[in-house]
Amino acid sequence: MNQMQGSGFKSRTFFCAAQLFFGEEIWCKPVFPLVRKANRNDNRHLFLPCILADSHKSSKSEEKHKHKEHKHKEHKSKDRDKNREKSKHSSSSSKNHSNSEHKDSSEKKHKDKEREKDKDKIHSSGSGSGDRIKKENGFTSPPRIKQEPNDDYTSSIKVEKKPMKRTREDDDVDFKPKKIKLEDLKKAKKRKSEMVTKCLIIFKQQLGSILKSWEGFERKWEEERYTDGVKWKFLEHKGPVFAPPYEPLPDKVTFYYDGKPMKLSPQCEEVATFFGKMLDHEYTTKDIFRKNFFKDWRKEMKPEEKATITDLNKCNFEEINEYFKAQSEARKQKSKEEKLKLKEDNEKLLQEYGYCIMDNHKERIANFRIEPPGLFRGRGNHPKMGMLKRRIRPQDIIINCSKGSKVPPPPTGQKWKEVRHDNKVTWLVSWTENIQGSIKYIMLNPSSRIKGEKDWQKYETARTLKKLVDKIRAQYREDWKSKEMKVRQRAVALYFIDKLALRAGNEKEEGETADTVGCCSLRVEHINLHAELDGQEYMVEFDFLGKDSIRYYNKVPVEKRVFKNLQLFMENKQPEDDLFDRLNTSILNKHLQELMDGLTAKVFRTYNASITLQQQLKELTNPDENVAAKILSYNRANRAVAILCNHQRAPPKTFEKSMQTLQTKIDAKKDQIGLARRELKGAKVDYKVKRDEKCRKSVESKKKALERLEDQLMKLEVQATDREENKQIALGTSKLNYLDPRISIAWCKKWEIPVEKIYNKTQREKFAWAIDMADEDYEF
DNA sequence: GCACAGACTTAGAAGCTCGGGG
DNA sequence: CCCCGAGCTTCTAAGTCTGTGC
């Protein structure tokens, strides 16, 4: 029944439950209450963008449309003209729609004034677009029934009790068949009492597990959720781990300027090493990178250095590069003992700084190390690549912890920038980074209660969307006909977000980041309309750079109305103009918020990813196949989602090589098969001639050998296809962020696949909540 | 209603580890 | 035993979205 054996999870939950019951400290993962099941049936079909061989890099960094305002007016009047003819149709159908909406929505009073204002010039029945849908999932925090037993948690945290273990010697003594002396008797007695204690513990654990299944018991966890944005009541930690100080280069490593050796000041040298280390990277050949680096490097130079070093092209970092390569090689070559020592030191650091106490739980911290200084590596065509990321010092750091806790001491002789006690946020440490001026945080690991709960909540919102999605789709289809440009644009954008799982697309500050877009920020140049393409009507060809400058390329057939709308949106616009000039993410999300509590653009991505996985699993899993084949099906379902979400990766550097090795293996196998065939033929001839038992057996065995070889070949070929299909597709992101883990857990339980085959240790920790609550017939 | 700060999630790459095959 | 590569872990950039103040 339990699929989690070997994962260590089972015992952990038991431990947890027992402790809870017996009022001891809780130092383990949270247990979440069970949730009710969602209804079935979703008829959304798959839409898979085709992934191109290379991601391109946009070279454009032109100035954006300054005359938006002017254009708005132009478009508005045109829009009105165009719509005049359609108005009859539109108003009648929107009335229908309004009726149907009315039935379902229970709160009509929350009408938005703005919306009314927007629509003043038009139709009678505003189509009920903004009707608030009653909240259904109910995961706002319930009122706290019970007071936290110990709100002002003192820092006298009990460490896990030493296990009642004895040393090996004791045991050895006990097992010697000696005469029973008084001492032995004492020992035996002691052992007996320890056995009793052990039994008691086991009993406690089992009792805990029984209690765990009692729903009311589990609800205790819910009580821990706070209201009013409070995230915790107690928080104590050891502060961050700073990057190690700079170690100057040994004298034998020389930097050359214009062919002449030059000794650099430590400050200047450190920055030089950042560049030297990266010499093998493509970055260092890029003009922007070099320019930015050189500018920032010069700021770190002493006046004499600044006077001498005026041209980066005359700098020779070769020896620095060699030095670091040798260092990394030496690290690899270290002896077992040295490596073990290093590992232990690391572990010690982790034990000391890698955990914190948050509300009775010892929680793992995600990133307790401060980012070391270095050169900024933006993604894609980033205007700031190569800039110096400066070293973070204690006086840059803000510490967040609870009032009654032990504040982590800053390094001797130094001070924190600030110590605050803000329990409405989840971070422990923050600082401001110097490249974009944004704030960086130290937060908890995904396995923590605070992250797990949020994650669960995310999927619950997506499930709520599932219940309403038909209605929302009907609504945006209706809005394609709206007389208002704003509404039409919103409806078409939402259609793309829903159908193609595009991101919302916030506006970005120009020149600060790479030129990438999402749905709302698409520009005319990013789409191409084809009345007919590849034998299909009304095709839209997307080609743009999305998050992380990953190229999105897709040819999609759309409905005629969408097509016509796009033509309208593009009229009289320059390629660099916004496609949806009357829309931004704020407008869109405000609208979505009115349709469903908690609904934002990204919920569609979560919903569509999860529902796709569920459908694909149903479709692809063959009950008769073995575990390996089923896992292949799972991976295929996962891949379908990754394709939908456009999760790409650079083909692994070793890809070609490893493919080649595999191909060699395949070829060798084919040769073997050819040989085996010939041998079989020969044996058959022999048998025909001689007709004896020996020959018959020989034929049999040769036949078997051939079959085995053919089987092996097939497996290799499947492996090759699988690898080829995965060449540019990253499965991890969707697995970690978009797929409701309960779907996978349920699938595992249903087909008796060990969860470990689907989720590794870290993933199981992150999804502990789901492993705990999903049964085999869970429906997203 | 807009800009901006802040908080938090999502993302791919780089670095590291460990197990299987030669 | 060693080497290689897949898979795991770590790192931090780049998004989304909310709240606030003008």
Automatic annotation (TrEMBL):
Belongs to the type IB topoisomerase family. Residues 65-75 have a biased composition (Basic residues). Residues 98-123, 158-170 have a biased composition (Basic and acidic residues). One of its GO terms (biological process) is DNA topological change. The lineage of its organism: Eukaryota, Metazoa, Chordata, Craniata, Vertebrata. It comes from Scyliorhinus torazame. This is DNA topoisomerase I. The keyword Isomerase applies. It comes from the Eukaryota.
